[in-house]
Each structure stands twice: as C-alpha cells, then as structure tokens.
Backbone:
C-alpha cells in the first residue's frame, strides 16, 4: 500500500533527522538475512512489505510504532505544546520523536510553549534533539524513579506513555501476566510522577488479567478507554489503555 493510502495523514508530520540511525538499522537487518529460519524469513518478508515500515523510513521515524502514537494522538489529543512527557520503554525512540514534535520539546516553534520529553529504557537509545534519555534503566527500579523525579521539570509529568514490553517468551499467558504487572508497577508510581489531571497511556497484550489494570485505571482516572490503532497489527493481541484526568474520578468503581 503506498504511503498516501495510509489511514491518517503522514505528510503533516515533519521529517526528523535520524537518517544515519535508519542506515544503521537497515544495514543490520540486511546482514542478518543469511541462514535465517522459515519463521524469520516470513517475519522479514512481512516486515519489508509493511506500509508502516516503509512510511517510517520515508518520514525518518526510528520504527513503525511512531504511527501508533501519531494516530492515537490525532484521535485523542494526548500531547500538545508545553507538556512534560515521560516515555517508558522508549528505545529505539520513535515515540519520543513524536512526543518531541508534539510538545515542542526542541523549541522548533517559537510561538508555542516548550515541552519536555524524558525517555527511559533498559536498552541504549541514540540521542535525539529535544529529548532526554535515561538508559539503560529499569523503570521498576526505585533508583530509576528517583532519577526520573530529578530530571522532570518540577518533578512531574503531564503525560506518562508506556510502550514497554518484556522480552516475549512465546507463552501467551505468561507474557500477558508479565506485561500487566509491568503496567501496574508503572501505575503504582503515578502518585509520585503524574500531575493531577494528567494522562496515562500504556500498551498491554489482551488477556485474563487485563481487567485488573482496567479497574486500577478506573479508580484513579476520570476516563479510561481501550484503543487499538490501525498501525497495531490485527493479528496481535496488543491494545492500549488510555486513561485521562488523573485524580479526578467522578464515578465509583463497582467491585
Ligand atoms: C516495543 S519497544 C518500544 C518502542 C518505542 N515505543 C519506540 O517507538 O521506539 C519496548 C521497549 O520496552 C523496553 N522495556 C521493557 N521492560 C522495561 C523496563 N522494565 N524498563 C524500561 N524499559 C523496558 C524494552 O527494552 C523495549 O525497548
């Protein structure tokens, strides 16, 4: 599918300078082509045909997941100039690229307030203008929380994003449980980090424990939605929870 047929406008989003990062990434994919198994071959074929992969290359995003956040942001107005964003599980940095643009963290629009983006990941992240990266760092480690509080202006974020995913074991229930407990750990840090009225967006893999996370979000936020962006592969159980208006819950949550 050509880029112009993607379900939402890509051209509105200005290109970001990370061409050398892209070259490095594609070189790495190419060099792994030899001796691959059938499954790896299928993955590679799907990857190379994927319109969002192609669009990410054209738009200089570090990976296709940028389009998930772009779409969710376009529909739900999560980010705007001046906001402070904590991006958890930020590597390789595509969501941070979108966040930097949307909150004007690099100050490229002199007429809008300047926001702040802090990305955290277990993995190294290549530098990005307008973003601060804390890596390698485990979000669940109390020392990371301390550093996050020191780095965020005023010690608070207006938006917590989490696209975190533990290394998948392939055992669906186990992977689901691990991701839910990662999201719950992050949510447990919200009282320290998240500004009242703030937003929490996190990735989950749908499963039997999703209701636990949903309940917790409904207790703490005024509104909680489940969102599946088009860029999220249909065959994947991946869904996002979007919770808004932190600390301003009106209704009671049934037991
Ligand atoms: C799907 S990738 C994120 C992609 C990213 N949103 C982007 O657009 O570039 C998931 C990331 O979560 C990170 N992660 C998993 N567990 C983590 C943890 N406990 N602390 C920090 N990062 C974690 C992984 O290292 C991985 O880089």
Residues:
């Amino acid at each position: 599918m050509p880029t112009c047929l993607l379900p939402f406008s890509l051209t509105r989003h200005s290109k970001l300078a990370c061409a050398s990062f892209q070259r490095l990434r594609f070189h790495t994919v190419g060099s792994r082509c030899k001796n691959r198994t059938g499954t790896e071959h299928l993955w590679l074929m799907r990857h190379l045909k994927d319109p969002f992969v192609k669009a990410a290359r054209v738009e200089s995003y570090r990976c296709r997941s940028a389009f998930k956040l772009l779409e969710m942001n376009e529909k739900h107005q999560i980010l705007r100039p001046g906001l402070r964003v904590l991006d958890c599980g930020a590597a390789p940095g595509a969501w941070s690229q979108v966040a930097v643009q949307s909150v004007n963290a690099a100050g490229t629009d002199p007429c809008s307030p300047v926001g702040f983006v802090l990305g955290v990941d277990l993995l190294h992240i290549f530098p990005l203008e307008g973003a601060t990266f804390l890596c390698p760092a485990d979000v669940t480690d109390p020392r990371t929380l301390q550093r996050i509080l020191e780095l965020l202006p005023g010690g608070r974020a207006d938006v917590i994003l989490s696209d975190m995913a533990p290394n998948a074991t392939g055992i669906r229930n186990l992977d689901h449980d691990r991701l839910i407990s990662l999201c719950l750990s992050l949510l447990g840090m919200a009282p320290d980090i998240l500004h009242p009225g703030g937003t929490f967006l996190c990735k989950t893999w749908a499963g039997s424990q999703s209701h636990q996370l949903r309940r917790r979000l409904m207790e703490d936020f005024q509104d909680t939605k489940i969102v599946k962006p088009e860029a999220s592969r249909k065959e994947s159980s991946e869904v996002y929870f979007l919770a808004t208006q932190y600390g301003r819950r009106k209704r009671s949550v049934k037991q």
In short: Residues 62-63, 65-66, 89-95, 120-123, 138-140, 163-166, 182 surround S-adenosylmethionine (CB under 6 Å). Residues 59 and 104 are 18 Å apart (CA to CA). The chain is about 40% helix and 20% strand.
